[in-house]
Prior knowledge:
The chain is of the alpha/beta class. It has one domain: Alpha/Beta hydrolase fold, catalytic domain (Rossmann fold). It has helices at residues 40-43, 68-82, 95-105, 125-136, 141-152, 155-169, 177-188, 215-223, 239-242, 244-255, and strands spanning 2-6, 9-16, 21-25, 47-52, 60-61, 87-92, 110-116, 203-207, 229-233. The strands form two sheets. Strands 1, 2, 3, 4, 5, 6 and 7 form a seven-stranded mixed β-sheet that branches. The protein has a two-stranded parallel ribbon with strand order 8-9. Helix 2 crosses helix 3 and helix 4 (125-136) packs antiparallel against helix 7 (177-188). The two termini are 31 Å apart.
Amino acid sequence: MTKLTVGNARITYRTEGSGPAVVLVHGVGPGSAMWDGWSGALAADHTVILPDLAGSDPAEDDGAPLTIEALAAQVNAVIEHSGAGRAGVVGFSLGAPTAAAAAALRPDLVRRLVPVAGLSHLGDEYVRQLITAWLDLAGDPVAFGRLGTLTSFSPRFLNAIGHDGTEQLHGFMRPTDARLRQLDLVQRLDVRDLLPRIEAPTLAIGCTLDQLIPVENHREFARAIPGAEYAELETGHVTMMERPDDFAKLVRDFLDRP
């Protein structure tokens, strides 16, 4: 685990595998651990870089409100510090606008971009109400985690893993100060002015059964990036858990293009 100071934050990152560099940018949650169990699909022939940005459990900062620009600067600092050269960057959920901002602000560092289940701004009233309800549950950790599970996965997936498997998922989201700061950033999110500045070849991936950020938002995100390709998977929000092989193929095939 490598530690790095960027602005007001003390962040960490770790690496797996060897080969062309790929940075996996986490969304709301404890940090890069969300990629555990899937990152190995790339690490066989890529150097996978897994940062824990401000607002994640391993990171430390002054507790000020998070901004997309600060998180993007942390992603870019990790790419530079790792010595990986220009990297592919994959960002999931809140990590999608973070990765996109990193590409827009430092095009010299991002070779290819893959935003997944992304949101460019909080113009969807459904998402606004959902995030507000989630924050309202901060005093009830069990309900907070249960809402996270219900909105992160499709009913089909939850029925497939059964009651015990579903109950185990609740612990991933707890109403810590870090989680609440991440959700506060979602409420203030707006990267629409940055998306047209992206120069890196981009593949945006949408999730047609997403109950957290409905797929119309993913499509809007893709349309705002010049020349972006777009693909969809029939999954809930956390697509890398529901269809890991299909997701890996989409990402790998795009990143490995000449």
